[in-house]
Structure formats: C-alpha cells, structure tokens
Amino acid sequence: MKNRFLTLLILFSFIACKDVSKQHKTEVNTRGTIAEKAMVVSARKEASEIGVQILKLGGNAFDAMMATEMALAVTYPYAGNLGGGGFLVFRLADGTKGALDYREKAPLASTKNMYLDDNGNVIKNLSTVGSMAIGVPGTIAGIFEAQQKYGKLDVKTVLKPVIELANNGFVVTKRQAKRFAAYDSIFNAVNKKQILFNKSIKAGDTIRNKALAHTLQRISDHGRNEFYSGKTAETLVSFLQSEGSIITLEDLKKYEAKWRNPVTFEYDDLTITSMSPPSSGGICLGQIMKMIEPFDLNDYGHNALKTIQVIIEAEKRAYADRSYYLGDPDFVDIPTETLLSDVYLQDRMNNFSFEKPTPSDDLSHGNIVGYESDETTHYSIVDQFGNAIAVTTTLNGAYGSKLYAEELGFFLNNEMDDFSSKPGEPNYFGLIGAEANSIAPEKRMLSSMTPTIVEKEGELYMTVGTPGGSTIITSVLQTILNVHEFGLTMQNAVDAPRFHHQWLPDEIRMEPNGFDDKLIKELEALGYTINLKRSPVIGKVDGILILDNGTLEGGADHRGDDTAVGF
Length: 567
Ligand code: DON
Fold this sequence. Notes:
- The protein is an alpha+beta fold and about 575 residues long.
- The protein is about 35% helix and about 15% strand.
- It has 18 helices and 21 strands.
- The longest helix has 21 residues, at about 305-325.
- The termini are far apart.
- Residues about 1-25 have low confidence and may be disordered.
- The site of 6-diazenyl-5-OXO-L-norleucine (DON) has 13 residues, from loops.
- This enzyme consists of two polypeptide chains, which are synthesized in precursor form from a single polypeptide.
C-alpha cells in the first residue's frame, strides 16, 4: 500500500478523473432543456430517463430519487453507488422543507489515530484506497427512508426498470471508456484481478452488471434490511473482512439514515435551504452568501475582478471556520446560529479590502465566545406535483476505495478520508481539519456536499448541487449567483467558468481557459496566487430553474455526460 508505484497511480488517477473538457466562456445566454411539468437532471441520460419513467407511472420525486440513485449506481459507477452515502434536501409542494442524512459512518472498531504510524505521521493512502478507507455505507438506508416516508409507489415498481437496466446493460460513453482505462491499473492493484470495468472496454460497448441486478432484485424482494442484515449484508461483510476491513455485521445492523433540520438563510429576496452538518455545505454557503450580500456584485459584473475578490475573501473566511468548528453534530457542538449571524459575519469581513488580499495565515477561524469544543454525483428532480429534491451522493474519490465487491456488483467508498486523520494535515481535497472532525466510532465524517433548494418570494425557484469535493460549496454558490445576480439561464449558469478558494492553501483555483489573461494578471498584481492547474474542472453542476411562466429549465453541466429529461 505504501509503495511509490501505487502512490503515483493514485495521483495519476485522481488527476485523470477530472474531465478535461474544453472550457468556454458564456457568449450567448441560451436556455437548456425545457419541460412543462417535471424534470430529472443527473450525470447520465439513462438515470434521468428512468427517473422520468417513474414520475410518469404516477410516482413522485421521492420514488424517482430511489430509481435515479440506483440507475446511477448501474451506469455511473464512478460515483453512483450502493457502497457510499449522501444527502437529500427537499421542498414539498406545500412548502415544507427537510433534509435526510445518509452519510457513511466510521466503523465501531475505528480509532482516532488509525491512519497514523508509530511516529504520529499520516500513513499515505490508507484512508483513500482499499479496505481500510471504507465507511459504513448509508445509501440504501437513505433511499428507503425517503421513499417510504414520502413516496407513492411500491419499491418493486420503482426498482423494476433499474434491474432491467443492470441486466440489459448500458452503453459506455467516450468519457467513461477513458476513465475505465485510466483507472485500470489501480483497479488491478487494489482488487488483485480484473474487474467488470477495465481498459478493454471501448466507447459504444454495452456493460451488463448481472451481479448488481441480483443484488437489486434481493433488495427489491426483501427491502432495506437485505442490505443491512440479510444475505447481501453477510456477503458484503465476509468479502470486506477477507480484504482486511474492520467493518462488521454489527456496523451494518446499527446503521440508520437520519432526518436533519436543514440550514435556511435569506439572500436578497431568496430563501436558501441547504444541507446541515455532518455536511459543511449549508453553513459555509450561508456564511459566504451573507458575507457577500452587502456588495453590489451585479454592478461589478460576472467573473469581474471585484466580484472575484469579494467572493474569494468570503470563501477563505468560511473555510477557515469550517475546518475548526464543523463535524458530526451527534458528536460535537456546532455554534450554527453564531456562525450564520449578521454580527459575526460582518466582523469576519471587517479587515476585507479591495487593495490587497488578506493572507490565509492571518485569518484562522473566528472567535466565538463561549464555544468550548475544542468523487460524488448530484441530481435534481422536480415532479408534476410540485415537490422538489436536491440529492448529492458519493463514494468520495472516483470509484471510492477502488475495492469492488464482485459478487454484489458495486464499489465501496473511501469516505474515511473526509475525517481529519491528524489536526492540520490536509486530506485528499487539501482540507484541513481539527478536533471537531476527528475519527471516533460511529461518527459521520464532515462533508462539503451542498444539495440546495432556493425559493424566491416564497415559491420554488431552483434545485441545485454538484460533485467536486471541497469545491462543491463554491460551485453551488457561483451557480446561484450566476442566475440571481447576473441573469444567466440555468444552462449557462452551470456551464460558466468557475473559481475557488478554500482558505488553505492560500491560492485561487481557476478553471483553465475560462478567464482572461488580463484578469489573472490583475489578481496577481494585487497579491493573489492563481492556480490554473489544480482543477481542470471545478464542479459539475446539475440544477433545475423554475421560469416565470412556470416551466422548468434544466441545467446539465457540459463538463460531463449530464442530461436533463422532462415532460
Ligand atoms: O463529502 C464530501 O465532501 C466528499 N466526499 C465529496 C467528494 C466529491 O465530491 C468527489 N467528486 N469529485
């Protein structure tokens, strides 16, 4: 695990996993796919189509969620999953809002220093690749919890087309074939043999995943507990333990998805509802938006120098707070109210200046008196009944831990890397954590996933989200601003070039080819460090916007194979 070959492979594979699709600047503000009544936007056409099929059968957004999520597990094993976890934010037609947390958990046998060697140094790759990287999966618990509480159809009807898809197969896209080839050597290194997805697969080939079809059939027949205590659970645990994992049957039996109060805040005439901890998404998005609200971004212009400065400086401050204060709310006290309060956030921006950057080293987290505590996919659905959901789900890295349960037909996550293995030590996404996000048995690792629903004057306006690790929050932010401040269509809002700052490292990441050299030079002259290489793409946003005439506009990010389907 520690050898250099594997390290290089992993590095290469993380780089290769980014789609280096050509960036372009938004020239014409054209609309995306339009639908009258209902829409699903996801990372794969087949998954969006199956979601719509379920809606047409009389199902609602929660039925479509179960079908879309499982169809992504079939067609988009890069991030779609049974072996991972996620978050759902919803708004019912009557305006009720809520959130479901089906994030993975640390196994019972995990320990705070499990990724450190005898000298207290982080052991490379242990939390990112292979069996020790895996958190207890939450996805099946999540889709069942949501569907059983709010869905209308029976599970068998919902899963039927997905099982057919797994049996009959899906056609590999060009992007997908490239990825399978790029990951082939790491799949072989981790699994010690060829798996279903390998470099001999070409664009246009059909992949049938019979093992996954059988797993889904058993889940359809026996329900949620098939995954957590039935035959599937036993097969999974015996496989995991043979690979050296510390996950036990008891871990699976104890797993529960949890309903959470989402984070809600106002920005101009918008009400924004997003994911609460254990995701940092809602709080960070809220902090950034509240910090930038007093500035006239619309006047400065889209991706203009002053707009970028204001956003970047707010992002730095929010990510510094994230690293110190945020973690699983079942384990740490989070001062949510203060973190989102006007007084606190005005104070955080007190030292902001257009003249020069605030160095990240001078920033740290804000002081809160009395506080004593010490690769992903998103889909958006609006149904014909007026319910809206935003769901982000993940295995963490591309194909998660790369460990593939052949008999069951799915990859296992590497979500344990989202914990802070050691205070101050960056994780794969370069995020620094502290005590609040340290490892403990049954604790949920902090996330950046930001499934978000926006209302305008009390009415549903947008559902949006994205993959992208630490860049998720800032990608969702820019998409909302692109529509609200700069008048972009939903499609152009998701396609527009993006930038990102996460406090540490102290640099602005920008998508290459998306920004003028002149602008970059101006930022550098002010003292900002620009990194055009770290992120060939930033986020891959999927969203739905409700237009003035009540129709729906899908925004399916051109950076991937994402597709909007509606009726
Ligand atoms: O929960 C999180 O924040 C990360 N595990 C998300 C990973 C991700 O978005 C990977 N996609 N590029």
